[in-house]
């Protein structure tokens, strides 16, 4: 039986909500600084201590390290012999930054020193837009050959692999590791599945049949959308916590199935975006808890959560923006009050914000020719 495992995250998608324990940004923000690396597009950001790390998904690519206090560029790394870009958030483990250069043929997973920006090792050729997950001293990434690799972060040495995976573009997600289990989607000859694996050995623990978008992993449950449904899967057993719920909304006078993107953990609810609504689903039942109408771009949701604050991009009907792209909002999840909106002028009109990364009392977000810190 062949399995497809592709650790992939679209450049403007959200893998997870921000940590609930950090202090959210509740007041109208200002740009503390805007980092211009000399290229148009920044990718999703990873914070490691006093360093923000992000790739460049277009042009010459590369990985770039920014001082989170001063906004100064610490270093940029563009590998010799590999022209592929880095469109997903770099992984960090034990002072090594792990970046998948998957767009090149051939590409490489490359380990770079966090302190110096110098190359330490090169690993297998990752799938295009592959994402890296880390757990302890291991990093996980899927190759163009369809193999899921577990690499020792310090050296790039292969710890284990799960082979016999089939190549293909379906059901692509970034791997997520939480509390000793690796979660990602896979496609077999029998269908598509959400898989739970032992990160130490690659042994499969359970599988759940569905073609899902990026899973959101909470303390007890994995939530995901796909196939016009919202799913809630028990982390321990791989069984339904409740019957999958159809995602329907009124569209042009008819009750239609809609695609929900940018799903994040909002505490008692999970929240996602459609073209016409922000939708909050009760985690206990899957029922719609509340909605916020407006104009939104599911391809650029910029959703994240910190504490009880939801961040998103769009134009809510109660406080419209000039366009559905290029304006960030903060919403109090308890009261559904819009706390603030933020936009910045760009050379390209209505250029969308990308991935939002909450930090204590602020945000990192990628924009046109800039990685912006808001506080």
Question: Can you put this structure into words, describing what you see?
Answer:
This protein is an all-beta fold. It has one domain (3-374): 7 Propeller (Methylamine Dehydrogenase, Chain H), CATH 2.130.10.10. The chain has strands spanning 3-5, 31-35, 45-48, 51-55, 63-67, 73-77, 91-93, 96-101, 108-113, 119-122, 133-135, 138-142, 148-152, 158-162, 176-178, 181-188, 191-197, 204-209, 216-217, 221-226, 229-234, 245-246, 248-251, 254-257, 261-265, 269-273, 277-282, 288-295, 304-306, 309-313, 315-316, 328-332, 338-342, 356-359, 362-367, 370-374. The strands form 9 sheets. Strands 1, 15, 16, 17 and 18 form a 5-stranded antiparallel sheet that branches. The chain has a 5-stranded antiparallel sheet with strand order 25-26-27-28-31, with no helix packed on it. It has a 4-stranded antiparallel sheet with strand order 2-36-35-34, with no helix packed on it. A hairpin with a 2-residue loop joins strand 34 and strand 35. The termini are far apart. The model is unreliable at 1-18 (pLDDT under 50).
Question: Which characteristics define this entry?
Answer:
375 residues; mainly beta; Methylamine Dehydrogenase, Chain H; 0% helix; five-stranded antiparallel sheet
Total individual domains: 1
Overall spatial form: globular
CATH architecture: 7 Propeller
Put simply, the count of helices is 0
Helix content: under 10%
Q: How many β strands by DSSP? A: 36
CATH topology: Methylamine Dehydrogenase, Chain H
CATH superfamily annotation: YVTN repeat-like/Quinoprotein amine dehydrogenase
What class, by secondary structure content?
mainly beta
In terms of DSSP E residues, the strand content is: over 45%
């Amino acid at each position: 039986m062949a399995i497809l495992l592709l650790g992939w995250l679209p450049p403007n998608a959200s893998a997870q909500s921000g940590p609930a324990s950090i202090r959210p940004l509740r007041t109208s923000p200002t740009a503390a600084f805007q980092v211009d690396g000399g290229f148009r597009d920044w990718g999703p950001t990873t914070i490691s201590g006093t360093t923000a790390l992000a790739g460049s998904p277009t042009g010459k690519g590369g990985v770039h390290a920014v001082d989170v206090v001063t906004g100064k560029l610490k270093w940029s790394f563009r590998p010799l012999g590999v022209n592929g870009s880095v469109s997903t958030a770099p992984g960090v483990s034990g002072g090594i930054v792990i970046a998948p250069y998957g767009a090149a043929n051939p590409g490489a997973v490359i380990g770079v020193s966090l302190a110096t920006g110098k190359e330490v090792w090169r690993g297998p050729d990752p799938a295009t837009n592959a994402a890296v997950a880390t757990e302890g001293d291991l990093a996980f990434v899927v190759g163009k050959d369809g193999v899921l690799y577990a690499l020792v972060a310090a050296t790039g040495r292969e710890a284990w692999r799960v082979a016999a995976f089939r190549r293909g573009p379906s059901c692509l997600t970034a791997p997520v590791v939480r509390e000793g289990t690796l979660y990602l989607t896979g496609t077999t000859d029998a269908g598509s599945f959400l898989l739970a694996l032992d990160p130490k050995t690659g042994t499969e623990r359970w599988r759940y049949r569905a073609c899902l978008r990026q899973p959101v992993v909470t303390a007890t449950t994995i939530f995901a959308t796909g196939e016009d449904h919202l799913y809630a899967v028990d982390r321990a057993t791989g069984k339904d916590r409740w019957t999958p719920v159809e995602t329907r909304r009124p569209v042009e006078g008819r009750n239609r199935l809609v695609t929900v993107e940018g799903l994040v953990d909002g505490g008692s609810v999970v929240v996602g975006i459609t073209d016409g609504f922000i939708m909050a689903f009760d985690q206990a039942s899957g029922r719609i808890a509340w909605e916020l109408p407006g104009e939104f771009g599911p391809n650029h949701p910029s959703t994240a959560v910190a504490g009880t604050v939801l961040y998103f991009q769009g134009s809510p009907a109660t406080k419209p923006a000039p366009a559905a792209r290029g304006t960030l909002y903060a919403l109090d999840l308890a009261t559904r009050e819009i706390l603030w909106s933020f936009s910045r002028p760009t050379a390209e009109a209505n250029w969308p914000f990308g991935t939002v990364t909450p930090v204590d009392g602020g945000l990192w977000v990628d924009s046109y020719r800039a990685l912006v810190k808001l506080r």
